[in-house]
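Handout, page 2. Input:
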Amino acid sequence: MKQKYFKPSSLTWWASFMPLAMGLIVATLPIHGWAAGAETINLMSNNTPSGILINAGLAGIGLRGALN
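Output:
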């Protein structure tokens, strides 16, 4: 079975996965309590809300899967 959305050898997949992962880390801060990591992500992303990061990552992965 060909994997349509999970392509870890693709640079475009990683470019879409990173905002998704960053958004999940910021959104789940009350659960994991890693404030230094979340603050670093907020500084790198110019305080972009976690929902926007997650949606951008999912949209990128979805578009990449749709084009193949």
